[in-house]
């Protein structure tokens, strides 16, 4: 049984995967409200952990009978609610789901020791030589000084409070007296980048798909395939089996990691969705021979 777990009722990624599984008669359920997932965790005398789940329409299943595809757990909030109470409930949902997914044997993507990892945490799991240098600061002058030392052509700046992003190519475009300057509350994250031309690779387990190649890099070259397979292997070891990585190339076409997205937008792989979903089924340990109908748990 494959459980598709995502809170957005209009998420095209979940809808498309749901349709793929239904067309192939693969046993699965779709859950968009984690409050309807009943589960229990029990520690045996021998130290082993047993998990049971109850899915409406499917009864009670043991943990090793369920493979879970998690779509953006940070978006899980109670339907129709807002404010501090809703945020508290969402945090409780995530804590419960973290426990569930941490104990299940087959999860895409699995949470880390504290929570589901995001881009900055995943970047730290890679070899430093493969990622762009970054700077976190509230001091715009410090950022400009660091940029001057790095001598990179571009500065990719994100305001962590407003989520505004921009590409800076001239120091004068980043005013030390405005965003990030003394007396403000801006928190900046910036990458020292060679360009804004991206190669985007979608990785599913140990298989990958090139979905964008703006700098016209030879994505069939052995060096490129070795780089991508190394990135996939490093993140696979962290429980991340489905992600997109944005790479930028310098003037010699040497590539560095700019961003890692553990929740790839469906639009990026719409045209190759069947191939992606087929590989996701492989990662989830399920083939087309199952013949149970879908139950949509809302």
Q: What's the SSE blueprint?
A:
Elements: E1 2-6, H1 12-23, E2 28-31, E3 38-43, E4 49-55, E5 59-62, E6 67-71, H2 84-103, E7 107-108, H3 119-123, E8 134-137, H4 140-150, E9 154-159, E10 165-168, E11 188-193, E12 198-204, E13 207-213, H5 222-236, E14 242-249, E15 255-261, H6 266-269, H7 273-283, E16 295-297
Parallel strand pairs: 1-2, 1-6, 2-16, 6-7
Antiparallel strand pairs: 3-4, 4-5, 8-11, 9-10, 9-11, 12-13, 12-14, 14-15
What does this structure look like?
The structure is a single chain. 26% of the residues lie in helices and 29% in strands. It has helices at residues 12-23, 84-103, 119-123, 140-150, 222-236, 266-269, 273-283; strands at residues 2-6, 28-31, 38-43, 49-55, 59-62, 67-71, 107-108, 134-137, 154-159, 165-168, 188-193, 198-204, 207-213, 242-249, 255-261, 295-297. A hairpin with a 5-residue loop joins strand 9 (154-159) and strand 10 (165-168). It is globular, with a radius of gyration of 21 Å.
Task: Report, as a whole number of angstroms, the end-to-end distance.
Answer: 17 Å
Q: Label the overall shape.
A: globular
- Count all strands and give the number: 16
Number of helices: 7
Low-pLDDT segments, ≥5 res: 178-183, 288-295
Rounded to an integer in angstroms, the radius of gyration calculated over CA atoms is: 21 Å
Helices and strands, in order, run as: EHEEEEEHEHEHEEEEEHEEHHE
Let me know the largest β-sheet. 5 strands, parallel
The secondary-structure class comes to: alpha/beta
Q: Work out the helicity level.
A: 25-40%
Query: Hey, roughly how much beta strand do the residues contain?
Result: 25-35%
Strand line-up in the sheet with most strands: 7-6-1-2-16
Q: On the 0-100 scale, what is the average pLDDT?
A: 85
């Amino acid at each position: 049984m494959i459980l598709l777990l995502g809170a957005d009722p209009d998420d095209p990624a979940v809808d498309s995967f749901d349709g793929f599984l239904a067309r192939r008669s693969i046993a699965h359920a779709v859950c968009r409200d984690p409050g309807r997932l009943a589960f229990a965790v029990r520690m045996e005398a021998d130290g082993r952990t047993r998990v049971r789940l109850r899915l409406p329409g499917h009864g009670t299943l043991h943990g090793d009978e369920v493979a879970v595809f998690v779509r953006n757990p940070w978006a899980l909030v109670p339907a129709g609610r807002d404010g501090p109470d809703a945020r508290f409930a969402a945090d409780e949902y995530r804590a419960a789901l973290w426990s569930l997914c941490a104990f299940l044997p087959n999860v895409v993507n699995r949470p880390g020791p504290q929570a589901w990892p995001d881009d900055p945490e995943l970047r730290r799991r890679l070899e430093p030589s493969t990622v762009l240098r970054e700077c976190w600061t509230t001091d715009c002058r410090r950022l400009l000084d660091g940029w001057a030392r790095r001598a990179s052509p571009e500065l990719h700046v994100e305001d962590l409070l407003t989520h505004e992003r921009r590409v800076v190519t001239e120091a004068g475009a980043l005013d030390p007296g405005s965003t990030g300057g003394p007396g403000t509350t801006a928190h900046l994250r910036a990458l020292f980048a060679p360009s804004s031309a991206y190669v985007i690779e979608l990785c599913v387990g140990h298989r990958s798909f090139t979905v964008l190649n703006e700098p016209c890099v030879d994505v069939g070259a052995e060096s490129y395939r070795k780089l991508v397979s190394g990135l996939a292997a490093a993140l696979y070891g962290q429980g991340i089996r489905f992600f997109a990585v944005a790479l930028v190339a310098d003037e010699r076409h040497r590539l560095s990691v700019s961003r890692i997205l553990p929740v790839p937008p469906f639009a990026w792989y719409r045209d190759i969705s069947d191939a992606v979903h087929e590989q996701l089924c492989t990662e989830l340990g399920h083939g087309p021979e199952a013949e149970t109908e879908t139950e949509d748990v809302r």
